Amino acid sequence: MNLILFTFIVLLGFTSYYFGRKKAYTIQSTKKRLTALPQFYGYYLAIWCAIPAFIIFSLWAIFEPTIVKLLILSDYSNQGYLDDELNLLYEKSKALSRGQFTGEITPLIEASAEKYLSLRSIAQSSKVVIVLSAIIASVAYAYKRISSNSRTREPVEKFLNAVLFTASLAAILTTVGIVFSLIFQTIDFFKVIPLFDFVFGTHWYPAKAFVRDSSEALDPTMYSDTFGAVPIFAGTFFIAFIAMCVAIPIGLMSGIYLAEYASTKVRQYAKPLIEILAGIPTVVYGFFAALTVGPFLKELGTSMGLEVSAESALAAGGVMGIMIIPFISSLSDDVITSVPQSLRDGSYAMGATKSETIKRVIFPAALPGIVGSILLGVSRAIGETMIVVMASGLAANLTLNPLESTSTITAQIVVILIGDQAFGDPKTQAAFALGMSLFLVTLCLNIVALRVVKKYREKYE
Amino acid sequence: MNKNKEQLLNKRYKAEQRFRLYGLSAIFMALLFLTIFIFKIFSTGYSAFQKTWLIVPVTFDAELMMLDQNPSKEDLQDADYYDIALKSMADLDPNANEDQENELKRMVSYFFEKEIKNELLNDPNLIGKTKEVYLTASDDLDQVFKGNYPRDLPEDQRRVSDYQLKIFDQLVANGKVESKFNISFFTNADSREAELAGIASSFMGSIFSILVCLMIAFPVAVLAAIYLEEFAPKNRFTDFIEVNINNLAAVPSIVFGLLGLGVLLAIFQLPRSTPLVGGITLSLMTLPTIIIAARASLKAVPPSIREAALAMGASRMQTTMHHTVPLSMPGTLSGTIIGLAQALGETAPLILIGMVAFVNTIPGSPMDPAASLPVQIYIWAESAERGFVEKVSACIMVLLGFLIIMNLFAQIIRHKFEKKWS
């Protein structure tokens, strides 16, 4: 229904464009000079068609559910029902009218479902009538208004500018959305679990906090010693550390080699090949780590008499490191190439070898950029999810042994939120609190890294 | 003195060579990982494109099927196929006792009676006759036939019994086992039975999510990039937007999953597990990538183009829309494709919005529950059955194939259509 209406409005838009342009041609044919190209008259009318439709659609989307609910529940408002019961009744009748209801159908629910359906159909048809009449009225008004000396280009361009501006707000809206979705759940979580316990507690067993019956009162003691995030934070940084131990030497050295030693031909082939590593989906790395690297390390360890878990931090961290190699290599490659040639020439003139030049001159000059690229790599490692979920353990052990399994923030979020969630449950909220800490940590890392890289770039440009 | 100098010089040259070797070996390591990786995936995955069939004679006994004379189409639909299916399997070994008959039944896929039913529906004249029917082998025997199953394990550690292996070997010796191209891997939806599981549902889920993502992310990102590059005044607010974009590009993907869960599902009440929600979530994630690419390619359009248009009396909006934006499109499009390829490989946010649900139907619209290819990889990788391992690798091959095609496409657009200035 909405789709048909939408198509119709689009068609109306094209028609008004056509009429606007036609009117402009008519004015032109009377030898009067137009203030803008004829198509601007068309755009002008089309905009007058789109704006009321858009406004009414959004208002309807916001207010229709509330008004329908009020109308349905007003019948029962004086019969001594509690608010919760009324809400439940409304939800049930809504589900019934959509054919998704699975519980017992009482006459009360059936009646309100019928009412819901009839109200919805009334709302739909009145929406059609109102939208169409609003469009016709506004287009007619605008059509009458345009004349030989009315301005049409400026309003059209202003409108376009406003659209462009709105689109550029999307990034801010997304950030706001992220903060918004995290913060309320996080605050609710810290109402039950003290911040101190979360940050300094050393036991993490979210499975203990099973879904409560809603009638049961919140009992904070039930959750004590369940949501201590230290093992998780430690595990996250530990795995990221292992990953960086793999990624930094390999990434940095290959970046240096590509920038300073490699011939154009080698560079031409090696660089995109290494970058393929960055394009492989993380779930594929996870599978690789779980299927190949984990068992391989276990076997290797057993042959050397070591106890290695099949889901060791080493396997996850190592594979994660491989994933991060291309980030570090291409960023440091860029940074090194942008070091001015004069620095190199100066060093060579003093008789330094190539490697000495790199180590003593280029590396220090490029250091801020390299540090920035490493920080971005760390932020990736911390936020990486699938490798850890698939290759490292899901139980949060507080350990510094790379051969045991540990868990990370991201893995715990997935463990908690996979399957059905009940909002308002401390376990679910814990995932959002973890998400919040992840967001904050990576935000700081990113901002610092981007600053460093940007500052460095300005220095040599 | 001189000798000392020479020694020092030699030392320095050696250090030079060592350093160079480190660099070379670093590159070599990176490429080695890539090779091992691709080799491993291909060597475990290629066999999934073959499927093992058992050729079993089936007697379509009207009495056992509870059919009257001259049955109608509906009768055939409702007939009882279980007994003849069971009988035809039991007939493989006339001396089988009851337990062994059960084992014989488990040599073919769980839905073998359906395959027999389809055979009869295709040719109703088969009633009363015997025909050799292709039945899907169970996933374990499939693996045995492909040589992936450790037959030398003690019997109690295998899912295939010695008896089943004996009968199977007889069938192989008689040429009654055949391997054919696995079409059902591409046409079937997910299934709990490895031999029947396919990627059709997750493939459609991926396509729908990517389409939704494209429809939202592309217009918004291009408009935003045009504003920021061509119209935005240089002030604090613009800087703020820019910081936001750069930062969003580096936010972990799972945080976007939390956004989808907390806002799209909890507040806007959009349907769970659907490509619609998945696509919206992914679009928020790809938005910064596309904005950054579009801005870069707008920036690459030389100012002379703008100045020429302005000099001819075009307004700034006309200059932008008629000249700058069309010239920047190749770069923008290739950036968009690369962003979409990233979104196609994304798993974690989709898991959080519930696209991990077991879906055994093929979704017909973005509003139907679905998985996506990477999520399918995750789901299968978590299953314990041996038959799923090769499926995972095969699914990865399909996914990587798509990513390669998309990236090549982006390259082609960039090289063919992008104007080289200067």
Topology:
The complex is a heterodimer of chains A (461) and B (422).
Chain A: H1 2-29, H2 38-74, H3 83-97, H4 107-145, H5 153-168, H6 170-192, H7 195-200, H8 230-261, H9 264-279, H10 282-303, H11 313-337, H12 341-349, H13 354-383, H14 386-391, H15 409-417, H16 426-460
Chain B: H1 2-45, E1 50-59, H2 73-78, H3 82-90, H4 98-105, H5 112-122, E2 130-136, H6 139-145, H7 162-173, E3 177-181, H8 184-187, H9 200-231, H10 236-248, H11 253-265, H12 275-299, H13 303-311, H14 316-344, H15 348-352, H16 373-382, H17 387-417
Antiparallel strand pairs in B: 1-2, 1-3
Helix pairs in contact in B: 1-17, 9-12, 9-14, 9-16, 11-12, 12-14, 13-14, 14-17, 16-17
Features:
heterodimer; A: 461 residues; mainly alpha; MetI-like fold; 2 domains; 75% helix; B: 422 residues; 3-stranded antiparallel beta sheet; 17 helices; 3 strands; 5% strand; extended
Walkthrough of the structure:
The complex is a heterodimer of chains A (461) and B (422). With 461 residues, chain A is mainly alpha-helical. Chain A has helices at residues 2-29, 38-74, 83-97, 107-145, 153-168, 170-192, 195-200, 230-261, 264-279, 282-303, 313-337, 341-349, 354-383, 386-391, 409-417, 426-460. In chain A, helix 12 runs antiparallel to helix 13 (354-383), helix 13 runs antiparallel to helix 16 and helix 15 packs antiparallel against helix 16. Chain A is flat and about 85 Å long. Mean pLDDT of chain A is 85; it is low at 211-215. Chain B is mainly α and 422 residues long. Chain B has 17 helices and three strands. Chain B has helices spanning 2-45, 73-78, 82-90, 98-105, 112-122, 139-145, 162-173, 184-187, 200-231, 236-248, 253-265, 275-299, 303-311, 316-344, 348-352, 373-382, 387-417, and strands at residues 50-59, 130-136, 177-181. A three-stranded antiparallel β-sheet of chain B has the order 2-1-3. The longest helix of chain B is centred in the first third of the chain and has 44 residues, at 2-45. Chain B is extended. Chain B starts with a helix and ends in a 5-residue tail after the last helix. Classes of the chains: A mainly alpha (461), B mainly alpha (422).
